[in-house]
Specification:
The protein is an alpha/beta fold. The chain folds into 2 domains: 222 residues, Spore Coat Polysaccharide Biosynthesis Protein SpsA, Chain A, CATH 3.90.550.10; 110 residues, no CATH class. It is built from 14 helices and 11 strands. Strands 1, 2, 3, 4, 5, 6, 7, 8 and 9 form a 9-stranded mixed β-sheet that branches. Strands 10-11 form a two-stranded antiparallel ribbon. Helix 6 runs parallel beside helix 11. The longest helix has 20 residues.
């Protein structure tokens, strides 16, 4: 039984990125690990590259499956994993050599259910992996294009506190720097969403974890590419973020975390306002379902909206806007909350 199983979903990742990501995991200073490449319906070239790595290193296993999205690919990897702990890596990122040794050592020492460290966020176009002798100096030189919450002070937070940290942007919901005990992974599953599946998984973790330990080290490099799913989603991603914050609000309400409810509601308001101001409109059936889910959310929470909106009307910078969707040949009309309510959309 390896100490750590690293699950890496792969879907037509260019060979240069996949090779770099796989090589970084296999170069870890924690020797006892396995890498599970989950080929999520890739074409022949990427599939062959996955098989290349399995033939090259006995620690690599490949699962070939029809495309189902990164969440279902991770579920398949979890089902096949043999490790005591399970980690996740993206097929176009880079893990610094000490990542899994630091995470596993911290977790195994106290049999912790989950540990998480920080990360760098860098543009893929200018990234050059550091050599073993210049790693420290390279880290100091790297320009950061990411956010402050990818660096943490060492601390333990409880499961319910995870929601509060997420709503205050004190915790990122990425999986790359998270290590979970195998029994925790076995009790959860990812959704079939193409985007933000990790965000919903993190909210599920909040209900299952007694403790999450945060570590100060930054040992993973998230590499941004303009053609990646997260960078090209556009208006659709805005709707998904709004739906995510609606879900976060509901879960905070169940825990009676009023400050988290407020933060989630305000983030939802900002996202919808930006969506409306940019001329966004549901363009696909999936986006329309998300949009209607958000309308349903406001139907359920009319009292909360009225009380919070009334209390902050004088200095509230947000104007929640909706679209009244008419026939396909008519332009959508941007309506503020009161107009939407008068049309019965929120009753």
């Amino acid at each position: 039984m390896p100490d750590v199983s690293v699950i890496m979903p792969v879907c037509d990742t260019p060979g240069v990125f996949l090779d770099r990501a796989a090589r970084s995991v296999l170069a870890q200073t924690l020797d006892d690990l396995e890498l599970i490449l989950v080929n999520d319906g890739s074409g022949d070239e990427t599939s062959a590259r996955c098989d290349f790595w399995a033939a090259r290193d006995r620690r690599v296993r490949v699962l070939h499956r029809e495309h189902g999205g990164p969440g279902l690919a991770r579920n398949a990897g979890i089902a096949a994993a043999a490790g005591k702990y399970i980690g996740f890596a993206d097929s176009d990122d880079y893990a610094l050599p000490a990542l899994y040794r630091v995470l596993f050592t911290a977790a195994a020492r106290e049999n912790l259910p989950a540990v998480k460290c920080g990360a760098f966020v860098l543009p893929a176009a200018s990234f050059v992996p550091p050599g073993p002798r210049d790693e420290g100096e390279t880290l100091r030189r790297w320009p950061e294009v990411g956010r402050a919450q990818y660096r943490y002070a060492k601390q333990d937070i409880s499961g319910p506190e995870i929601l509060r940290y997420l709503s205050n942007n004190l915790l990122d919901n990425s999986l790359w720097t998270l290590l979970l005990r195998a029994d925790v992974c076995a009790s959860l599953s990812f959704t079939a969403r193409e985007r933000m599946e990790d965000s919903y998984y993190f909210m599920d973790l909040a209900r299952r974890l007694e403790i999450l330990r945060l570590l100060p080290e930054r040992l993973y490099i998230y590499l941004t590419r303009p053609d990646s799913v997260s960078q090209t989603a556009g208006a659709a991603l805005a709707l998904e973020r709004a739906a995510h914050d609606a879900e976060l609000f509901d879960r905070a309400a169940a825990c009676r975390q009023t400050d988290t409810m407020t933060n989630a509601f305000n983030r939802l308001s900002r996202t919808l306002t930006q969506y409306a101001d940019s001329g966004g409109r549901p363009a696909t059936e999936a986006e329309l379902r998300l949009y209607m889910d958000i309308i349903s959310f406001f139907r359920r929470h009319m009292d909360y909206y009225r009380s919070s909106h009334s209390a902050h009307r004088a200095d509230d910078p947000f104007d929640i806007k909706f679209f009244c969707l008419g026939p396909a040949d008519e332009a959508s009309v941007v309506l503020n909350f009161a107009a939407a309510a008068s049309l019965g959309l929120l009753e």
